[in-house]
Amino acid sequence: MTGGFRQRMAWLHTWVGLWMGWLLFAVFLTGALSVFYEPITHWMQPERQTVARPAVDIPRALANAQRLLALNAADAGHWQIELPGDEDYAVHLHYDGQRGPEIRMDPESGALLPPARDTAGGRHFVTFHYELHSGMVGVWIVAFFTMALLVALVSGIVTHKRFFADFFTFRPRKGQRSWLDAHNALGVLVLPFLFVISYTGLIIWWPDTMPAGVRMFYTDQRALFDEMGGAHFREAATKSAGLRTGALPNLPAMLADAQARLSRDSQGNDSIERVSITHPGHANAEVEFSGPYHYDGIDFAAARHYHYDAATGTFRSAEFDDEMVGNGDAPAPLIAGSVLRSLHLARFGGTMVDWLYFLCGLAGAGVMATGLLLFSVKRRNRKLEEFGRHSARVYDAIDRLNVAAVASLCIACICFLWANRLLPVSLDERHEWEIGAFFAIWLAAALHAAVTPPARAWRLQLGGAGLLCVALPVLNAITTPWHLGRYLYHADWRAAGVELGALACGAALLWTATYLRHRLGTGASAPRLATGGRR
Amino acid sequence: MSANTLHIVSVLGGAVAGTICFALAMDRHFERVYGQPASDTTVRGLRLAAWACLAALLVPCVQGWGLSIGIIVWVSSVSLGALAATSLLTWTPRLVPLTGAVAAALGCGGWLLAA
Tell me, what's the ipTM? Predict the structure, then answer.
């Protein structure tokens, strides 16, 4: 590390970018897919898809649900009735001590419906992108890499300062120059997004990533969250049940009152999502009606809960809570934290913001991928010998790792969706199998990348991922009663969107694969390509 | 079309038009599109048009999404508009002026219809 400021920054950017880029690519790709986790889950549970959605008679659905719960779970301390929503046309029932698959009920007839398949759903991508499915250790790893990303961004601005002269410039088919152009163009144009998404991503985990303050003033994190409003939930759970009366609350009467209150509190939206009954059949039973998260502004997104005395049906209290800032009287720093969290989760602003975040996230993954390739291409053109006499071998290993991090992950992501359709529906802990399939296929593809010359591995793996994407609608048509045409006909945009997205990604991957093959086939000099293996 | 769809059309149109103006205000891109260097007046005019576009773009953003979310929509759509401008300059430089004009028309039209 010698030379002036810019050289030092270039050194920092190169090495931070290289060692961190592999995992950051995975975080950005799965993070971009996370934007659409809900439509992906919807696609992954074909049992919940329906052609007709008759208007639901909610009072009747509630009465049916309560009858079913009284029959099956009379002794449970807590019941929960999830009313039909976007995700499913059926009512979902939960109770304390419940085992086995989900309980779905037809809202009209009260008959039990077959449970939807157990799936990790789009949540898999969300969880993977912030904790790599390994709990707090994963959170710490991703947080560390995110810090490194901020370092890489700042040093990258200094390193690539020519991008101001090269704004809007992309010169294709020029080897290293093209990769540099692509890296600069993508990087600088989505720079605001990259900063915001990495910084807010760190802030979400403030109690864990910046634990000093919490340690100083509280015995542990639970004490902190109790003060923020968490204590309320535990108190409710430990309240005595009172005498057993066997009487069930008159839910429809309370429903009308709760709907009126919700409508008044959230600008006309009266859609109650959930009804919970604590100590059903006992003297101290309480009913809670909960509405959806309502965005009063990004600083306070609260769910409304209305509590009723089950025996008399009288209104007791209303509660507005935010998962981050309790019931709205939080101090300013917590509210600021909640704003940053909302910024990261993109849970506001609807379809437009979803798509902007998705595309910016993909562009971010593109910055990582082009940066990694640039590292390799540059070293193929110039003898840098940064690893002494082992250089050739280390560069070759880096080439192979690039394939394993970028192309193999694309295969694993699409195979996760394939696994959802191919694994037996009755499998025990099926969602774990899906995640297992994701990791197993990633590992297998990475091993393939390790033993295949990189040029060939890029072509095969990108082509393979492309074919799997394009064939996804076919697989769905074979394994379920649904297919793309039927989704479109019934205006199921979420499921159709997943398949159209897979088709678009598949086309892009196949194009890249044939482009690489064509470039090699026409005898273009290998050093000008990211794909030529160096031996 | 719903007001929301019209706002989306308006924002995307404005973002593409604005970033195309910025690109054309750079000598390298102007020459590639028109085959001759731009005069100083033209460059100044294009820069002015670009800033005007981006400033005007804030209006449908804030109308459609409110101030706080509108700013996010503004920043990220300008980013994506710039990526679109880069792609157009790379693969279809001749179509850049026409695309810019159509985008500007969509931007204005969408906003007028939504209002």
Answer: 0.93
